[in-house]
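Page 37, continued from 36.
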């Protein structure tokens, strides 16, 4: 089985229940990269090191911290934006 693309169901539920604060200055969100052989998808409920890409170049194992996050309203749709903060990476 390979990676199934999608946002984790548990994360969606936690957003709706107010567990996470995605506004500026809110929770720290990290993004991890995985090999195509990883068995993860929307039912994955937590970070795992299994088949994660090794630290290389600007990528740090454990994931890059997303920064500059903001919640905004565009028409009738809520948007959340962020960017990877490379300043916290080990070189």
């Amino acid at each position: 089985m390979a990676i199934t693309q999608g946002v984790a169901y548990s994360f969606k539920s936690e957003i709706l229940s107010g567990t996470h604060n995605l506004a500026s200055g809110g929770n720290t969100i990290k993004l991890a990269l995985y090999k195509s052989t990883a068995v993860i998808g929307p039912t994955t409920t937590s970070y795992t090191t299994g088949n994660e890409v090794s630290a290389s170049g600007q990528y740090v194992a454990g994931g890059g911290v997303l920064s500059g996050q903001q919640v905004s309203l565009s028409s009738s749709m809520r948007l959340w934006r962020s960017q990877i903060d490379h300043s916290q990476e080990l070189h």
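Residues 9-16 form the longest helix (8 residues). Flag for discussion at group meeting. DSSP finds one helix and three strands in the chain.
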